[in-house]
Amino acid sequence: LLAFVQELGLSSVTQWLGTLPHDRVLDYYRQADLFVLGCKVAANGDRDGIPNVFLESMAMGVPVVTTNISAIPELVENEKTGLLVPPGQPDQLADAMLRMLTDRDLRNRIIPAARRRVMQDFNNKVLIRDLADIFNKKGIGPRE
Fold first, then answer.
1. CB neighbours of 35 closer than 8 A, spacing ≥ 6?
2. The pTM is what?
3. pLDDT by residue (tens digit) across 50-80?
4. FRET label pair with 107: which of 70, 75, 82, 95, CA 20 to 30 Å apart?
């Protein structure tokens, strides 16, 4: 990737930050206007499920533009909690990015809906409690 960035002449406008402490990551989310990740299915069939960075972005109020593969549409619903485009369509991805950055009504609708979606359906405290209830019902609860 670094060689590709150099080949395209993008070195002066690209930063590779590596692993960062959590508070620095939060600072970057606070400064962000948009989160974009063009996921695709690899040649060997490997694919993303629901990348955590989507949950983090949406929870922080950063709108998401991504591709409609795998389980991603379970979280990022097109026109409701983000924008989805087909994988391998860079022009459509660029158009969706521009739209998300310039359409104020869309942003004002999507940002709060995305945050609500994360808080309602992907809240770890709730999910852990639900999982504990399932174990308890099956008799797999904590031993005394």
1. 53, 54, 57, 62, 63, 64, 65
2. 0.81
3. 889 999 999 999 999 999 999 999 999 999 9
4. 70
